[in-house]
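Hi everyone,

Forwarding the result from last night's run.
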Amino acid sequence: MLTFTISLDDVVTTSFLNAPGSTTLPVLIFSRARLGLDPTVNAVATITVLLVGIGVTIASFVLVRQERRRAQAQAAAYREAMLATQST
């Protein structure tokens, strides 16, 4: 929902600031949506959703792996501290 809102903001901003003859992706999608959608717009939307989904999934796996490593390091440090206090 946020991406859609930001994309509409880009359309408004770009329509005022672009040079004649230049179009950006949000303006192109917006103009095609007004005239009727064709399969290329659907393909671009599908690719965008897939790329974002893959990126979020990869980031999630990386964060989980880092959290596990941090937890293991913290547990090892706690065990070492407990052994050090028991031996003294």
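Residues 20 and 78 are 65 Å apart (CA to CA).

Cheers,
N.
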